[in-house]
Amino acid sequence: MSSWVYASEDSVRVKNQKGDTLWLNVHKLYHECQAQNPDEINKRNMDSLKGRWKRLNGNDNKWVAACRAANARKRSGMSDQDVENEAHSIYKGDGSNDFQDLIVFNEVMSKHEKWSVHDVTQAERDKAKRKGKGKVTQSDSINAQCAADLHALRLAKDNENEISRARLQLEREKLDKPSMKMYQKMLLKLLEKEHLSPEDQDMKRNLTEIVFGK
Length: 214
Description:
The protein is an all-alpha fold.
């Protein structure tokens, strides 16, 4: 189903894409995914893909209608889970079995306008278009994902630079510690002297500034 959604939403091909061409693209995309995940995805021929799509499309159209009806009945205090439970009751109202495709619906199909559970009127669609809130294209989604990936890479690089600076500072401190001990010993020797020459006085003053930061 995700192959059908991807192929049908391709902003370059979809404008003049005929049914046969669409299914050829669906078949190609599906088998590319299957080749990359042979243990998780079963092989399917064109008829098998069409049959699965027909079943999912029929069941999910009915589920969408049930969800819209449940949303219309939503009362104050009802949670999203309450609404979903109501939708399941509506779906089974004519003696049907439970809705079995909830995972593929939530993860793939619900993101496609064809199976939106929100009943958007044509007037609202026109209003959205006038306000520039039209449908996000495949290229927009790809650009947004690229931007997010670049942002994550920048954050990782900044973090790596921060760690490098911290390590450098630590190494500097390690190198400075022996020198500080040496300065302290020199200062103690000068303090132990009863009489200091002018040179000793200057050294004492300099060492005091180094050791005590004064």
